[in-house]
Amino acid sequence: GIQVEQSPPDLILQEGANSTLRCNFSDSVNNLQWFHQNPWGQLINLFYIPSGTKQNGRLSATTVATERYSLLYISSSQTTDSGVYFCAVGTNYQLIWGAGTKLIIKP
Amino acid sequence: NAGVTQTPKFQVLKTGQSMTLQCAQDMNHEYMSWYRQDPGMGLRLIHYSVGAGITDQGEVPNGYNVSRSTTEDFPLRLLSAAPSQTSVYFCASSYIGPGSSYEQYFGPGTRLTVT
Are the Cβ atoms of B102 and A45 closer than 8 angstroms? Predict the structure, then answer.
């Protein structure tokens, strides 16, 4: 089956810093999504991005499908950005999830 | 819209007991799914459904049953609880069809402990 690897596993930053999270996957997919799980456990969909680039405020994502990786950029980090960021990939609606990147933003 | 709702929020079971986790959505989404999340891991798909009367297995279906009699509801049944089923369970839904972005909407989760 498809393998998903996320890096780094943990990231600690000061407020205002920028960060790049990476997701590598082992096979062709037509579905790739980034999610944020806040410290209370709630899962929020950030991007559906099987290819190309999207931006939403301070967050942006780029997927290079031919090279099987995706990047999530967070600029000017805020403490509310803390949590775990997951990449999930698959075909159609069945998603395989990475182990996540745990991000801690210190004030 | 309430979105995706799950009940209960917390549950403690003894080994061998059975129970049903409830999931409902009011967005008229065809696709619904159940995931489990174990500590330090991503979510793993248990079962999913692409419409009323249609269900299929995901990665980790053993020990769980589902049914989908209506578009709105997708209950997950634990037949005989085991400590290995201690986890947080998430239900999700998504729109299927032209223009779908495959975006999945998640419920708040049910934290289940089996002793």
Answer: no
Longest dimension (CA), chain A: 40
Residue pLDDT, tens place only, B51-88: 999 999 999 999 999 999 999 999 999 999 999 999 99
Chain B residues 16-75 with a CB less than 8 Å from chain A: 31, 33, 40-45, 48, 50, 58-59
**pLDDT, tens digit, 9 for 90 and up, residues B23-52:** 999 999 999 999 999 988 889 999 999 999
B61 Rama class: left (phi>0) / alpha (psi -120 to 50) / beta: alpha
The structure tokens 């609880």 sit at: B81
Please choose, from the candidates B85, B112, B56, the residue with its C-alpha nearest in 3D space to the C-alpha of residue A92. B56
**Residue A81 phi, psi dihedral angles, 5° rounding:** -80, -10
Question: Does the structure show a pLDDT above 90 at B115?
Answer: yes
**DSSP strand pairing (B10-13 vs B110-114):** parallel
Residues B26, B101, B9, B21, Cα dihedral to 10°? 70
In single-letter form, the type of residue at position B106 comes to: F
